Each structure stands twice: as structure tokens, then as C-alpha cells.
Amino acid sequence: MSPSEELPGPVAVIAGGLSHERDVSLASGRNLVRELGALGVEAHAYDFDRNLLHTLERDKVVAALPALHGQFGEDGEIQTLLELIGLPYVGSRSRACRVAYDKGTARELLRRDGIPVPDSVGLSAQTFRDIGAAALMEHVMQRLGTRVVVKPARGGSALGV
């Protein structure tokens, strides 16, 4: 029996959205739909837009596979929406996503549980603008060394690194 024969309806691959990671998400979504189809699973791509919840219900989707990157996909938003309508989905629950999405919070929780994490410095973009990146980076590199990664505190992929 193929996987699609086991499911009473289609699987939604939710991709796109409006974050700066839209293109990455759309590519991930296309790949997932293709691979699920190759396994015999009826899967369709759905864009993260104002019609999403209505469309999922109208199409009698039985499960979702979020392929959204960054905001709305990894921050717990899509998971919360899917939980709201009672649609099963692949991945972590909304609460875990919200905690993990914030790098500072996630690092602190990992450290608190004895999981080693590299040293870091967390500063807002506003602080970088107000104080000046050059002055701040001089002190950051004195503390952490010259090989550092600068990344937004709340973001999914390596875009913007």
C-alpha cells in the first residue's frame, strides 16, 4: 500500500509567506511536494497568505508540512495557526518554536541545562546603529576573538549573516 492510500486526503506543504526568506521557502516547498509525490503521497503547495486557513479546510487537507523559513515558519506562528484549526503537522509544537527562534533565549536555556554553547554577545540592531558597529565590534572581538558570526537574534536561515 502506498502512503497516499493510507491518507484520507491531501497533505499541505505550506511555503512562501512574506518574510525575506520567501524564495528559500518556495524552493523548499517545491522540493518537498516533488519528493512526497515520488513516494506516492498526494501533496500540494500552499502559500502562507490570508486565504490559507480557509483553503486548507476547503481542500480537506489531513496534515501539513510547514516549509516556511524565518518569520511565520520557525517562530511558532504557522504552528499556532495549525493548532488553532486542529490540523496535524510535522515539526515542533508552537511553544518550542517560539523559544528556539529567539537565539538568546535558546542559548540561555541550553546553557542552563548544561549543554555547551559557544560564547556570544547579544546586541540589538538599534545599539549597533546608536553606538556604531566599528566601536562595538572592536570590543566584541576582544572578548570573543576575531572569528565571529553576526546574525539577527530572531531569524531562521543563514540569510543576513
Major beta sheet, specifics? 3 strands, parallel
Question: SSE order in H/E notation?
Answer: HEHEHEHHHHH
Structural class: mainly alpha
Spans with pLDDT under 50 lasting ≥5 residues?
none
**Total strand count, please?**
3
Main β-sheet, spatial strand arrangement: 2-1-3
Please, how many helices?
A: 8
Strand portion? 5-15%
* Estimated helix fraction: 40-55%
- The overall average pLDDT, rounded, is 88
Shape: elongated
Instruction: State the distance separating the first and last CA atoms.
Output: 45 Å
Radius of gyration: 19 Å
Kindly describe this structure.
With 161 residues, this protein is mainly α. Helices cover 45% and strands 9% of the residues. It is built from 8 helices and 3 strands. The longest helix has 17 residues. 25% of the residues are buried.
Outline the fold blueprint.
Blueprint: H1 3-6, E1 11-15, H2 22-38, E2 43-47, H3 52-58, E3 63-66, H4 77-84, H5 94-101, H6 103-112, H7 125-131, H8 133-144
Parallel strand pairs: 1-2, 1-3
Helix pairs in contact: 4-5
Short descriptors:
mainly alpha; 3-stranded parallel β-sheet; elongated
